[in-house]
# Entry
Amino acid sequence: MKNNFVNDVTDSDYKYGFVTDVETEVIPKGLNEDIVRLISEKKGEPDWLLEYRLKAFKHWTTLEMPEWAHLSIPPINYQDIYYYAAPKTKESPKSLDEVDPELIKTFNKLGIPLEEQKSLAGVAVDAVMDSVSVKTTYKENLAELGIIFCSFNEAVKNYPDLVRQYLGSVVPYTDNFFAALNAAVFSDGSFVYIPKGVRCPMELSTYFRINAANTGQFERTLIVADDDSYVSYLEGCTAPMRDENQLHAAIVELVVLDRAEIKYSTVQNWYPGDKEGKGGIYNFVTKRAICKGDHSKVSWTQVETGSAITWKYPSCILLGDNSVGEFYSVAVTNNYQQADTGTKMIHLGKNTKSHIVSKGISAGYSQNSYRGLVRVAKKADGARNFSQCDSLLLGDKCGAHTFPYMDINNDSAVVEHEATTSKISEDQIFYCNQRGISTEDAIGLIVNGYAKEVINKLPMEFAVEAQKLLQISLEGSVG
Amino acid sequence: MLLKLKNCCKFRWRVVSDNNLEYRYMLSIKNLHASVNGKEILRGINLEINPGEVHAIMGPNGSGKSTLSSVLAGNPAFTVTEGEVLFNGKDLLALSPEARSCEGLFLSFQYPVEIPGVSMVNFMRAAVNEHRKYNGLPPMSASDFLKMMREKKEVVELDNKLANRSVNEGFSGGEKKRNEIFQMAVLEPKLSILDETDSGLDIDALRIVASGVNKLKSKDNASIVITHYQRLLDYIVPDFVHVLYKGKIVKSAGKELALELEERGYDWIKKELGENF
# Structure
């Protein structure tokens, strides 16, 4: 019975296309077991994955939304959300003329090429023949090396054993409220596998997988780096993707085996809401890496400028001896944005090292918190950690907070924490003004100088755009 | 008596109200009043400056010397309540601080601020390119810019290392002042205001800074040198010396006035003006 219903729904989707009221009628809002089954069915998933989703869903119903973060989150009605085929209120624009001119203005400020603008704005892509061939070329190159880089759904179909082995192995669905939610309803995402001894010759970026754009609010990324391999992965894009969705709850899992290294860079610029704090994305993301192998290494670099609320702590479990975890973060909040972000470094193996550099920038009425945990387990002899948490304030109505937790259970550990808080002073701005530099440009200079240490960790092309992004995000924050 | 006479000569200029003539001044300040936090500091400043001239402004502490330089540069902490300032015929007070800079007004700060994380190279490049943009020129190429930086550094014997460090961060007092003159050399202002550039300098640094200023002097640019002491004026020889007291210029004369002030202090001027000034 149930399956028939599912098929009807699926078919009717095709029959009537994306007419809004039809779609909202047949795929109801809300979350229950049927919806979870429907999602899995629609994707043609194997039973084990459906089981996984259902277990996650059951667990989720027992959980409460966490409230410990330094965030004020308006109540979210989880039964008022579409969990599949998120409502497309508009048809995709046919050309850039139909795209919000504000968006185009920002694209131009960021210096994004026209073709790229089209695909970012979701313009119908018959003009993007080039990109398709580019994409194929990349795929062929990667395939020759045995690298798997595909959407999560493809991976489930084509590499079920790999997915099954690692899915939820770093972030189990029991981990937290949002992890459970994602595990129950995740729509799509990315899967990467780098075979033994292979150094991925290019930065892998979601941008090249145009077909996987609009994967919705519950993405799932799984990257496995086998022994002696290396990959650098770029997530997100530097342009402000407009999104109707309010809630994003993604999961990223990284698995690093012996002597392998993953460098994971994020530039997050979701819609932050307007100047009065209306609208904007809630970004509740669970990102975690496990350094399983000896001498393995993970490096998280994030530049967070978007979202109304950010709740995210890219973490490293340093299980292998001599493994290394790094976290470099710039989080910018302006107007009424709120961010509670940081990292966890869990030292389990011997001689493990972690390095944390967090740079918070607050402006307007925003609240910006760093929350970090450094845990050294009993057996983690010779563990080392260095944390540096800096806050920069623009104006006197914003807040910066630091919550460093340390849990040290081994006497040989060396753990250092440094923190500073500074303010862009009117004297600094006037000094720049006097040399001919406008206030906006002066803030850009100072903020980029402040964040340089982190920006420098980004791949080159990304770094340039991230710099401009910092400045744009803070426009109008002074004066 | 001689002083008085010189005064008259100087002040004769102001009597002329023909607009065309006023345009010949590089800077013309008329009845300038300014306050900070509601307290009036400048109480009617009048001053004209021609290209090629060096004007020294001296005066006791709290007389408004630094306020005058801040107001001319457009520091938003100060409010102009009355008066007019023309700079090359333009209404200076209507311009933003950055536009004033691009028009050719330079302030060498008494206390240059530190800007951590911003290298001198990036900072100056931004400044130079803003100036060029203002004047309708394209940005300077990186190689031309670096070449210029190298040349200008020689003017104040600035260390190569300093140019690669963050703006003023960890600079000694002398290095900060040399850095100010270095920036002046790069931006080639029409009017430079040196606000107590000599304070905190030892005699060697003073000589280097002063010689830098002298090298940059030409018949087309002018300077206002604000100082407490005659010492700086041994190196940077002024054409005129003005005494600022309680927000007004109360005496103007040639360079010998500075020597007299050094010898006799300011009390005799205060006495001349009387208790109720």
